[in-house]
Design a protein that fits this description.
By secondary structure, the chain is mainly beta. The protein is 4% helix and 37% strand. It is built from one helix and nine strands, in the order αβββββββββ. The strands form two sheets. It has a six-stranded mixed sheet, with no helix packed on it. A hairpin with a 2-residue loop joins strand 8 and strand 9. The N and C termini lie far apart (36 Å).
């Protein structure tokens, strides 16, 4: 199986387990947030703060997400959400936003952070 699925060798795949793969799990963050390994598989991270908030991507040394990992971020708060690297000299964040290394999400905008190499991420979606 592909890396990131919530199954291990020898698991029996039940109908409920397979049907659960089509739904996102949500987690709501009301302060600056650095994703954890549990956020890598079909998790929608809701950023909900009235003022500016940061979604910071960790270095590979801190959280070794596999290449191809996609983390979805939705800003539901009134404050602008900035997506950036915890360590900008180590982790590279690329986007088509106004500042390629630190794209921002206005309220009700969403983006997907996609890992393409050891410490390289691309952010695509409703960024400014």
């Amino acid at each position: 199986m592909a890396t990131g699925f919530p199954f291990s060798t020898g698991d029996v795949l039940s109908a409920s387990a397979m049907n659960g793969l089509v739904a996102f799990t949500t987690t709501t963050q009301t302060a600056d947030y650095t994703p954890v390994s549990a956020d890598q598989y079909q998790t929608l991270v809701l950023m909900n703060k009235a003022t500016a908030v940061n979604f910071t991507i960790p270095t590979n040394a801190n959280v070794a997400y596999p290449v191809g990992t996609a983390i979805t971020v939705l800003n539901i708060g009134a404050g602008v959400c900035t997506i950036k690297a915890v360590t900008s000299g180590t982790t590279t964040v690329n986007s088509a936003g106004a500042t390629p290394a630190q794209p921002t999400l206005a309220q009700y905008k969403t983006a997907v952070c996609i890992k393409t190499a050891t410490d390289t991420w691309y952010v695509v979606g409703g960024i400014a």
